[in-house]
C-alpha cells in the first residue's frame, strides 16, 4: 500500500525571472504523482466543418504564407478571422511608448494597430502538435521566425507574443491544432517586469539568470542545444520551461538546425505531460525580448518557452494579489517527468 | 429587428490604478447586451452533507468567532481546513521584505507563515450573499474588519487579501456562500504595482486617481458613501469597481454605518450582474493597502472592491503578456447595468 510522504511546510518563493511570488502549499495537495487533468482533451475527428482542414482554405481569413507553397501544404500562416488588433488602422510612424500615447484624463490610449495571426500546424484534423516529427515541429518554429521577420519591418510594433492554446478550457476555440501570434504596439507589462527582474539579477551577480538556472533537481530533459526544467518558483503545478543553452535574447535568432532539436524536446515534453497528467489542456508561450533592445540589455535578455498544463483553476486570490498557490514543489514535478518513459 | 451598431476600432488602454494594458477589441464581440454566462451557477439545495450549514459545525476546522456569539449564528469566521499558509510555523519577528528573506541561489524564499480563514456568510445553504439584507451584508463586511484588526497584531503579516469565489469555475470548492481571507508575510506584486502606479498619478496631478475617477459614462450606481463604475481600462467584460467616495487607504477604516451602505450597493450590483449576465460565476476582491504604510503614501492610497464576472476564459496570450483582451467597452457595460431595473 502506498504511504503518504511527510508533508512539507508551506513556503513562498520569488522567481528571479518573472519577479512573481508563489505560495508552495503541499498541505492542499494530493500526492504530486496523483495530479491528473479532470477535463482531458478528447481527439475530435470531425473535420467536415473545420475551416483549418486541407481543402477548406476558402472558409478562412486571408493566407499570409504556406509551407511548402503548393496545394499539398504542411502548415499555413493565416490572418485571424476575429483579430484582437487591426492591421488596417493607421499606425504611428514610430514607437507608441508612454510619452507618445494619448492621455485621456482617465488613462493612456493607443490605437489598436497590430497583427493577429494563426498558424495551422498540420493539414490533418486529428493530428496534434506532439504527433508531428521533430523536424515538422521545427518547421512550425521556423514559420514563427519567418513571420516575426516580416512583422519587425513595422516600426510601431514593439512586441510579438507567440502562444498556443490547446483545449477549450485553455482558451482554444478551434480543436484543429494551431498556434497564434499577436504583434503589439506596446511592450506588455509582464515583459517589462521580466526584463527588469533579469537586469536586477545581472547587476547583482554579473550573470544572466537563465544561463545560471540549471539545477539537477529541477531538470527534466536536455538536448544538445536546449534543456527543460520545472522552474524554482513555478506558478502552476507541472509548469515547464524550455531554455536555449546558448545565451540568446530573441526567439527569432533560432537557427534551422536548432529548431529541429527544439522540436524534438518540445515533442518529448508534450508527450510526457499528456501521459502523466491525463492529456490536459495546456498553453505554451514564447517569452522573447521586445523588438527594440539596447546593447546594454542584451547580456541579461534570454528567451525561453513556457508550458502550462491546466490542472488547477484561478480564483479571487490570484486575481487580486497576482500571487499564485502551487500545491506541487517543482523538484517533485521534475522528478516525476524526468523518470517517466514515453514511447516516441 | 435589432440592428448591429457600427463596429468601433480596437484600442489599447492603460489603467492608471492597476498599470495594466488592456486591448479593447469589439470586432470579436457579440453586442454587449448579448453577453451571458454559459455556465450559470445553479442553486444547490442539498445541505445534508455541507459542513458550512448550521448544525454541522463539528465537521469544520476550528472557529475563530461567530456573530452573534450563540448557537443561532448568522455568520462564522473559521480556519480553512486546507490552508495555503500555516499559522503554526515560526514566524520572524519583523518584516519579511526582500532584504531579510533568504536568497537560495535560485530565488528568494520566505517561510509560509500566515492565516487562511473562511467566512461562512449565512447559516442557510440555499441563501446567496446577494439574498441577504444590506445590514446583513454589512455584518459580513464588519466581520472582515474585525478579523483584520486581530491579524494586524502579527508583525510579520504584511498584506491581507479578502476575496470571494462564487461558483466552481470561479474557484469555489464549496457551494455554500462564503468568502476567504489570506494574510500574507509579503506584499504581493499586484499591490506594489498598484501603489506605484497611483503614486505616479499623484505625483503628476497632485490628486488621488480613485478620488478623481468618477465619470458619468462609466458610472453604474451610487449611494451616500460609495459609487460603482465600469473602470476605464477594465480587464474583463462587465468588470465592476465599488469605490468609497471619501479618501481612505485601508478597508478596515470602514465605519459600521458605511458598511450597511456598502452592503446595499454590493447587493444591488450583484443582483444586476446575475440578471443581466445569467447568474455568472464571479470573484470579488478587496484591494486595500499594505498594513504598514508611511504618511507619504496615504494621499494616493485608496481602497476599493473589484467584482469580476467569469464570462470569458484566459489563454496563452494573457498568461504570456499580462495584457487582457476585452470585447466590451466599459461605457457600454456601465450603460447596460445602469439602466437595468432589478426588484430588490
From TrEMBL, chains A, B:
Cofactor: Zn(2+)
Chain residues that bind Zn(2+): 50, 53, 125, 176
Cofactor: how and how many bound: Binds 1 zinc ion per subunit.
GO molecular function, one term: UDP-glucose:hexose-1-phosphate uridylyltransferase activity
Coiled-coil zones: none
UniProt cross-references to InterPro entries, sorted A to Z: ADP-glucose_phosphorylase (IPR053177), GalP_UDPtransf1 (IPR001937), GalP_Utransf_N (IPR005849), HIT-like_sf (IPR036265)
Keyword entries, A-Z: Carbohydrate metabolism, Metal-binding, Nucleotidyltransferase, Transferase, Zinc
Keyword Transferase: yes
Disordered: annotated span: 24-46
Active-site residues from the entry: 178
Residue ranges annotated for the Galactose-1-phosphate uridyl transferase N-terminal domain, each copy included: 9-188
Gene3D superfamilies for this protein: HIT-like
SUPFAM superfamilies, per the entry: HIT-like (SSF54197)
Protein name: ADP-glucose phosphorylase-like
Source organism: Gossypium australe
Amino acid at each position: 500500500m502506498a504511504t503518504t510522504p511527510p508533508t512539507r511546510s508551506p513556503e513562498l518563493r520569488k522567481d528571479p525571472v518573472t519577479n512573481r511570488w508563489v505560495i508552495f502549499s503541499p498541505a492542499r495537495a494530493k500526492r504530486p504523482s496523483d495530479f491528473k487533468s479532470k477535463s482531458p482533451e478528447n481527439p475530435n475527428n470531425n473535420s467536415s466543418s473545420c475551416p483549418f482542414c486541407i481543402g477548406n482554405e476558402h472558409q478562412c481569413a486571408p493566407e499570409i504564407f504556406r509551407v511548402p507553397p503548393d496545394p499539398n501544404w504542411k502548415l499555413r500562416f493565416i490572418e485571424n478571422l476575429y483579430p484582437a488588433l487591426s492591421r488596417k488602422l493607421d499606425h504611428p510612424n514610430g514607437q507608441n511608448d508612454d510619452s507618445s500615447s494619448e492621455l485621456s484624463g482617465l488613462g493612456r490610449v493607443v490605437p489598436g494597430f497590430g497583427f493577429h495571426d494563426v498558424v495551422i500546424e498540420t493539414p490533418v484534423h486529428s493530428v496534434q502538435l506532439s504527433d508531428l516529427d521533430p523536424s515538422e515541429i521545427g518547421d512550425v518554429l521556423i514559420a514563427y521566425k519567418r513571420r516575426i521577420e516580416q512583422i519587425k519591418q513595422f516600426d510601431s510594433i514593439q512586441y510579438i507574443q507567440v502562444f498556443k492554446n490547446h483545449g477549450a478550457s485553455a482558451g482554444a476555440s478551434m480543436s484543429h491544432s494551431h498556434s497564434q501570434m499577436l504583434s503589439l504596439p506596446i511592450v506588455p507589462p509582464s515583459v517589462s517586469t521580466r526584463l527588469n527582474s533579469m537586469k536586477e539579477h545581472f547587476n547583482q551577480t554579473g550573470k544572466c539568470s537563465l544561463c545560471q538556472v540549471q539545477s539537477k533537481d529541477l531538470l527534466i530533459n536536455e538536448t544538445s542545444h536546449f534543456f527543460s526544467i520545472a522552474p524554482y518558483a513555478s506558478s502552476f503545478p507541472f509548469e515547464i520551461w524550455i531554455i536555449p543553452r546558448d545565451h540568446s535574447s530573441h526567439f527569432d535568432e533560432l537557427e534551422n538546425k536548432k529548431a529541429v532539436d527544439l522540436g524534438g524536446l518540445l515533442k518529448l515534453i508534450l508527450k510526457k505531460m499528456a501521459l502523466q497528467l491525463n492529456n490536459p489542456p495546456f498553453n505554451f508561450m514564447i517569452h522573447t525580448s521586445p523588438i527594440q533592445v539596447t546593447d546594454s540589455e542584451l547580456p541579461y535578455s534570454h528567451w525561453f518557452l513556457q508550458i502550462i498544463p491546466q490542472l488547477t483553476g484561478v480564483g479571487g486570490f490570484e486575481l487580486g494579489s497576482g500571487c499564485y498557490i502551487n500545491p506541487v514543489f517543482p523538484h517533485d514535478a521534475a522528478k516525476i517527468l524526468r523518470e517517466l518513459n514515453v514511447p516516441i
